[in-house]
């Protein structure tokens, strides 16, 4: 849920800026399920940071409006629907908006960019909706989604929202949260997911290949990971008192076991050492090998 | 009638336990009580005095009172484990250390953490000796560099033999040719640059190579002591029969240390109070010694020829012993001078 939480923080911030009367839907550390009973969920675009942020404000005059359960509602229930735009070109578009028949094509809803994808969640009532993407000023449809003709002689994407779908997700939620969501996305392959896709779930949709990744993917990691500090206590480096048996070492810490220690190669001789447990005792072996 | 038993197998969680005694002992003798599982495989004699029985032991290994009564089973059922123990009465207190060795496997004499130095046999001898000195160790194991199987042991004795060989060889050359060795000759005749494998082959050809002996970690300490004295060796590698790894090297020192660790629990044998001379321990006639003025090479020669590991150093004028030179002393002296 990492991605969801991050998104919530963003909403929090903007929500605070808008005044205390509103609450942020889907908070509380639970699933970011947004059940809004407001038929006109307002979307605000934050202009300060240039990042389009979606905010939902529940009405304060309703008892428990923030977390209103679907059963309380008599007329229309809205379901959160994820819309995604996959950037097919190597250069991702600068801005992607979505317009739809749900508000009579009135507003351009910005999609939030995340690495290669643009996505947003729109609360929709059950039924058929037509929608279209505005990518860098051009109206386009997603060829991977169901399409329909419009009156203007072009094409629109179409989505059907069915209440029953969400009940299934509810049941799935109870079973196992995140993996099930990923599976659901995989099997339906349609934007009617109730969950913001996060990297972990997207990972499951990818296929494993035999292709060797390019070197630049690893450029960030210049150095090997730092050695844990407890491994720096090398018992072979400790001085043993003269009166002790030179073949007896102090008792090793369990973390040191089965680690390879090496002495820098000197005079053409390599020295390696490892400590192993033998029943209730230990054996530390030093191997001298010419190279 | 029940006497205190000396519980030896401390490593196996056995402690003094009155319940054991009520079942086992009806004679006023001291007994060893050891877990049957911990017994070395060749240590126990088929003696009619050895009894086996099951005893209850507290499950916890931490400190706690021993179980008082054997018949309070149902109450203690959950807290005890049953283990077969052997009780061996000590009829003769003179034999107490002998029994101690018979009833403990080599594993028991192992230190908590043992350092093993291993060389591959393509290592040159000079570097191997430097490594031994650096680790203040007296013995290193030698691995076959191709198969990685243990093949022999490299010790201070090897060092002195190498040294003697080198010395005598050069001496012979100078006496035949009558010329001092040039630097080139010295390099050519320097056998310390040969790998350990060649050195061992050389010894083999001279008939001086002792067979490589090892002992099983489950064997009794008694058999280890027997091997050490019968083969006149100082170091006996202890092997695990399952994985073939060497666990540690049994030395006289290790055995004495083991006795010392347990001596407090054991009855004192009579002979400890007697004079060393009366017991006939050690060498009392025809003692080899060296004088202050004795050259080092002669001292080394003596160690090799007499097959001894140390020699007393005696002051010339009054015959008082002032020092003792052992193989290891000499090794350090030679390497650092």
UniProtKB/TrEMBL annotation, chain A:
UniProt entry tagged with the keyword Lipid metabolism: yes
GO biological process: one example: fatty acid metabolic process
Record GO terms (molecular function): protein kinase binding
Keywords from the UniProt entry: Fatty acid metabolism, Lipid biosynthesis, Lipid metabolism, Phosphoprotein
Region (Disordered) location: 1-32, 179-199
Pfam families found in the cross-reference section: AMPK1_CBM, AMPKBI
GO cellular component: cytoplasm; nucleotide-activated protein kinase complex; nucleus
InterPro entries given in the database record: AMPK1_CBM, ASC_dom, ASC_dom_sf, CRP1_MDG1_kinase, Ig-like_fold, Ig_E-set
Domain called Association with the SNF1 complex (ASC): residue spans: 201-291
Family of the protein in this entry: Belongs to the 5'-AMP-activated protein kinase beta subunit family.
Protein name: 5'-AMP-activated protein kinase subunit beta-1
Organism in which the protein naturally occurs: Pristionchus pacificus (Parasitic nematode worm)
Gene that encodes it: WBGene00089615
Automatic annotation (TrEMBL), chain B:
SMART domains linked: CBS
One Gene Ontology cellular component annotation held by this UniProt entry: nucleus
Repeat recorded as keyword: yes
Keyword set, alphabetical order: CBS domain, Repeat
InterPro entries from the UniProt entry: AMPK_gamma/SDS23_families, CBS_dom, CBS_dom_sf
Recorded GO MF terms: AMP binding; protein kinase binding; protein kinase regulator activity
Domain of life of the organism encoding this protein: Eukaryota
GO terms under biological process: cellular response to glucose starvation; positive regulation of gluconeogenesis; regulation of carbon utilization; regulation of glycolytic process
PANTHER family according to UniProt: AMP-ACTIVATED PROTEIN KINASE, GAMMA REGULATORY SUBUNIT (PTHR13780), CBS DOMAIN-CONTAINING PROTEIN (PTHR13780:SF99)
Family under the similarity heading: Belongs to the 5'-AMP-activated protein kinase gamma subunit family.
Assembly and binders: AMPK is a heterotrimer of an alpha catalytic subunit (PRKAA1 or PRKAA2), a beta (PRKAB1 or PRKAB2) and a gamma non-catalytic subunits (PRKAG1, PRKAG2 or PRKAG3). Interacts with FNIP1 and FNIP2.
Protein name: Aakg-3
Species name: Pristionchus pacificus (Parasitic nematode worm)
Organism classification: Eukaryota, Metazoa, Ecdysozoa, Nematoda, Chromadorea
């Amino acid at each position: 849920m990492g991605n969801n939480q991050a998104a919530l923080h963003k909403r929090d911030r903007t929500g605070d800026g808008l005044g205390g009367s509103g609450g942020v839907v889907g908070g509380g550390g639970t699933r970011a399920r947004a059940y809004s009973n407001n038929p006109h969920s307002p979307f605000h675009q934050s202009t300060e940071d240039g990042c389009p942020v979606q905010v939902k404000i529940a009405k304060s005059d309703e008892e428990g409006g923030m977390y209103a359960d679907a059963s309380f509602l008599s007329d229309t229930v809205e379901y959160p629907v994820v819309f995604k735009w996959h950037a097919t070109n190597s250069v991702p578009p600068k801005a992607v908006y979505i317009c739809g028949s749900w508000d009579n094509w009135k507003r351009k809803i910005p999609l939030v960019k995340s690495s290669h994808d643009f996505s947003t969640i729109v609360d929709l009532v059950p039924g058929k909706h037509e929608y279209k993407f505005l990518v860098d000023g051009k109206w386009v449809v997603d060829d991977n989604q169901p399409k329909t003709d419009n009156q203007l002689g072009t094409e629109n994407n179409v989505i059907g929202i069915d209440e029953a779908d969400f009940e299934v997700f509810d049941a799935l939620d109870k079973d196992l949260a995140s993996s099930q969501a990923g599976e659901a996305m995989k099997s339906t392959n349609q934007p009617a997911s109730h969950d913001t896709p996060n990297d972990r779930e997207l990972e499951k949709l990818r296929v494993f290949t035999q292709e060797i990744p390019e070197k630049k993917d690893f450029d960030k990691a210049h150095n090997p990971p730092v050695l844990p500090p407890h491994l720096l206590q090398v018992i072979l480096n400790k001085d043993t008192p003269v009166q002790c048996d030179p073949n007896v070492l102090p008792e090793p810490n369990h973390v040191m076991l089965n680690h390879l220690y090496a002495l820098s190669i000197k005079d053409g001789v390599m020295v390696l050492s490892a400590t192993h447990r033998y029943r209730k005792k230990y054996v530390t072996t030093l191997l001298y090998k010419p190279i | 009638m029940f006497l205190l038993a000396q519980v030896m197998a401390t490593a196996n969680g056995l402690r003094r336990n009155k319940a054991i005694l009520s079942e086992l002992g009806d004679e006023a003798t001291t007994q060893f009580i050891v877990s049957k599982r911990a017994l070395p495989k060749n240590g126990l004699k088929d003696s009619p005095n050895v009894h086996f029985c099951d005893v209850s032991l507290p499950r916890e290994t931490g400190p706690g009172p021993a179980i008082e009564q054997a018949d309070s089973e149902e109450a203690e059922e959950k807290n005890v484990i049953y283990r077969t123990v052997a009780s061996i009465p000590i009829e003769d207190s003179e034999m107490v250390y002998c029994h101690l060795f018979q009833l403990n496997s080599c594993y028991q004499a192992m230190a908590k953490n043992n350092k093993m130095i291993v060389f591959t046999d393509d290592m040159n001898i000079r570097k191997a000796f430097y490594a031994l000195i650096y680790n203040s160790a007296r013995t290193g194991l030698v691995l076959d560099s191709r198969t990685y199987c243990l093949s022999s042991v490299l010790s201070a004795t090897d060092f002195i033999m190498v040294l003697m060989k080198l010395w005598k060889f050069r001496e012979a050359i100078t006496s035949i040719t009558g010329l001092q060795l040039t630097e080139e000759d010295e390099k050519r005749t320097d056998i310390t640059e040969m790998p350990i494998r060649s050195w061992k082959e050389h010894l083999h050809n001279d008939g001086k190579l002792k067979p490589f002996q090892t002992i099983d970690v489950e064997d009794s300490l008694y058999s280890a002591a027997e091997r050490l004295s019968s083969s006149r060796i100082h170091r006996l590698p202890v092997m695990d029969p399952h994985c073939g790894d060497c666990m540690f090297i049994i030395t006289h020192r290790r055995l004495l240390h083991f006795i010392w660790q347990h001596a407090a629990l054991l009855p004192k044998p009579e002979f400890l109070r007697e004079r060393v001379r009366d017991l006939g321990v050690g060498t009392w006639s025809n003692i080899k010694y060296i004088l202050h003025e004795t050259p080092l090479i002669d001292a080394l020669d003596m160690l090799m020829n007499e097959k001894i590991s140390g020699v007393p150093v005696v002051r010339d004028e009054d015959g008082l012993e002032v020092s003792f030179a052992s193989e290891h002393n000499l090794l350090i002296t030679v390497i650092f001078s």
